[in-house]
Design a protein that fits this description.
Order of helices and strands of chain A: HHHEEHHEEEHEEEEEEEEEEEEEH
Radius of gyration of chain A: 27 Å
Structural class of chain B: alpha+beta
Shape of chain B: globular
Radius of gyration of chain B: 22 Å
Strand content of chain A: 35-45%
CATH superfamily of one domain in chain B: Mog1/PsbP, alpha/beta/alpha sandwich
Distance between the termini of chain A: 42 Å
Number of strands of chain B: 8
Oligomer: heterodimer
Strand order of the largest sheet of chain B: 2-3-4-8-7-6-5
Chain lengths: 385, 197
């Protein structure tokens, strides 16, 4: 009896040939993606080559692009299905194949863990001056529009619109606000300047700083040491009509006021914030150089961790290769201010940080067991021969 | 499904309540025994412009602004603008200034060759000069600019205008940068606004 269509599909998905094709394609993606970082920079290359189903190509300045190669997600996804299918089809859990089975489970866990890291991990920075305390870190490469209203003597109500929604340039009506925010223009990278008498460009907005400024879109920053400066022109729409337009930009930084129905709101475009239930305060930053040179020998940040809900108060020293791990976040010493009175900590949250370790342990144990089974069989055969 | 939710949940409008952040210079809830060493609240500076510079409207972004006039109707203006960090890298800003006078951008490696050492508020700084043609007016235009990070703020000092006038004003501009000073911060525990006992 010929195999059914389903059997053929399963056999194809579980085939070693598919594994080989996936590995070759993965090699191609990694090679091409690594080369592309020279032109695109790390972050864009990661996005276009590894965090995508397809790699697209189009002529320079053309509006269209076509998929020309599978991207990281597609190759990884097919490889994951291939491994799961192979595990079910070819490696039934028997004592003889325990090692192979464990190794495959480890590989599946490795791929799944990487996907989880990609989806769930957050990277941000915490910039503190000496004495300053903060209960949030900021994602430098993402922006958000914050509408802040005083809720009491020392608390604020905050409504935050993330970059992905801003980039869609549509009208957003958050439930807590008595008005809608219409994003008329969003610039992922931009420059804000004062209008010159000779320039014909009109003012960027009708309200706030934008009345005295112009904004221009720029190409995305690609180098590792540069970052985009996003800007947006937003219109505030109330049931009674428009209140005007505001230019919001990370270049400006300062919040701009908006008054509606006797309530004051602050509008600001700022790096995306991740709040924590605790404060981190920089007590002291120390920067030592080798005598007679500017070469850093040692730099460290003494920080105070304060948590109101548990009463926890302790000081921690963070320096190179000695991060602070707390409440699922890891704080690495990353940089410092030129005047040596401020520190920059990189904050990484990765809920699936254990999976690569577990996956490698499983693969290692599986290979060891499989080797031991073969060795045992070989030795046993020789003795009985 | 769970993965898709995890990935997309972060891209929605969020509403929350937070403790109000103190303005810069007044960190919240400092534990006892630690002095306040942060920057002063509002960016401010003192400077002595040359006598032939006329004070101009400062607008909302500038803390100092001057107009300089030369022969044959030549004009230049001087501005001092503080912006919160990072306010772009030096390379970004130099290329922005060059673009304003119609010059092509330079690479990072070429920056060092363009920098001229100057002194701002007693600290070493770098001055960048760009001479070209204004893209809108078609006249020869020039920009002298320096930037200095200080206490979380990047200070931009810039003179721009007709090329011949700016060339003649280069020395006064460099001398002007030397006169810049930043007001001292109030010592810890003695805020500047506190009344005398």
């Amino acid at each position: 009896m010929p195999p059914s269509f389903l059997d053929r599909v399963v056999r194809f998905l579980a085939s070693i040939r598919l594994t080989a094709v996936c590995l070759v394609l993965a090699l191609g993606v990694v090679f091409w993606g690594t080369l592309a970082q020279v032109e695109m920079g790390l972050y864009r290359a990661q996005h276009e080559f590894f965090r995508s189903l397809f790699i697209y190509w189009g002529p320079a300045r053309a509006a269209w692009r076509i998929p020309v190669f599978p991207g990281g997600y597609l190759v990884g996804g097919v490889l994951l299905v291939n491994l799961i299918a192979a595990l079910g089809k070819r490696f039934a859990l028997t004592p003889k194949r325990l090692g192979l089975w464990l190794a495959h489970v480890g590989l599946i866990l490795l791929l799944l863990g990487q996907l989880l890291s990609d989806l769930l991990s957050q990277e941000s920075t915490l910039h503190l001056r000496e004495g300053q305390a903060r209960n949030y870190s900021e994602a430098e490469r993402e922006t958000e529009l914050a509408v802040v209203e005083a809720a009491g003597a020392d608390t604020d109500n905050v409504v935050v619109i993330p970059q992905r929604l801003l980039a869609q340039e549509k009208t957003i009506a958050p439930g807590r606000l008595p008005f809608a925010v219409r994003v008329r223009k969003f610039f992922a990278n931009s420059e804000v300047a004062e209008p010159t008498a000779a320039a014909a460009q009109p003012a960027a907005a009708t309200q706030g700083i934008g009345r005295h400024a112009i904004v221009r879109g720029l190409a995305r920053a690609t180098a590792m040491n540069t970052r985009d400066v996003p800007s947006a022109v937003v219109e505030i729409e109330t049931p009674q009509g428009s209140l005007g337009t505001w230019l919001l930009s990370e270049f400006i930084g300062e919040p701009q006021s908006l008054v509606w129905s006797n309530r004051t709101y602050q509008l600001t475009l700022r790096p995306r914030r991740y709040y924590t239930p605790y404060h981190v305060q920089l007590v002291r930053f120390q920067h030592e150089v080798y005598p007679g040179t500017d070469i850093p020998r040692h730099f460290s940040s003494r920080v105070r961790l304060s948590r109101a809900d548990t009463g926890e108060q302790r000081e921690v020293l963070i320096y190179m290769n000695n991060p602070l791990r707390y409440a699922g976040a890891t704080y690495y010493q990353s940089g410092f201010d030129p005047d040596n009175h401020g520190t920059i900590l990189q904050v990484v949250r990765n809920p699936s940080w254990l999976t690569p370790y577990l996956a490698c342990a499983l693969v290692g144990a599986g290979l060891l067991i499989q080797f031991a089974i073969h060795l045992w069989g070989f030795v046993f055969k020789r003795r009985t021969a | 499904m769970a993965l898709a939710w995890a990935g997309c949940g972060r891209e929605q409008v969020q509403e929350y309540q937070v403790a109000r952040e103190s303005p810069p210079g007044q960190p919240p809830a400092l534990p006892s025994g630690h002095s306040d060493m942060t920057a002063a609240a509002a960016p401010a500076l003192d400077c002595k412009p040359p006598s032939d510079w006329q004070e101009a409207d400062r607008g909302q972004m500038r803390v100092a602004s001057f107009r300089v006039s030369g022969g044959e109707g030549q004009q230049a203006e001087v501005s001092v603008i503080p912006l919160p960090e990072p306010a772009g890298t030096v390379l970004d800003n130099v290329n922005r200034w060059r673009g304003q006078v119609g010059l092509a951008g330079v690479a990072e490696a070429e920056l060092a060759g363009l920098a001229q050492p100057v002194e701002i508020a007693g600290q070493a700084a770098k001055l960048y000069e760009a001479v070209g043609v204004h893209p809108d007016t078609g006249k020869r235009a020039s920009i002298l600019a320096a930037m200095m990070p200080r206490d979380g703020v990047v200070w931009f000092f810039k003179m721009s205008g007709d090329a011949d006038l700016v060339a003649g004003q280069k020395r006064p501009f460099v001398e002007f940068l030397k006169t810049v000073s930043f007001p001292e911060r109030a010592p810890a525990g003695q805020p500047g606004a506190a009344p005398a006992p």
